[in-house]
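One record is set out below.
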Amino acid sequence: MYSYALYGATDDDIALVMEMSDFALKTNFREELTKGRIDAKAKIGQRLYRFAVGDDDPSGARPNLTALIFLAKTRCGYKEVQVVENVKVDENVQIYLPDNGREDCELKKGK
C-alpha cells in the first residue's frame, strides 16, 4: 500500500488492485497510505529545492530560476500582484489618433 501511495495512485485504484473495498483499504491501511503520500511530497520537495538552488548536484548545474520562482510562490508566500489604478479622465480632453487608413475604409463602406 505504501508504494502505491508513494507513487501517486488514488485510494480507489489501490483498492481495485488489492481487491478490497475503499472503506476496508482506508480502515486497515490508513497509516501506510498517509506515510506514502507524505514521503512522496517530501521527496518531490527535496528534489525541487536542490534543483532550484543547485545544491548537491553532481553535474554542477546552476540554480534554476523558474524553480526558484515556483518555490518562492508556493512555500514562501510570494505572489505576483497586478495593480489597477483608477484614473479620473478630464472630459474636456480630446485625443487625436492617426487614422491609419480607416477613413478610406469608411468611405468605401458608405458607397
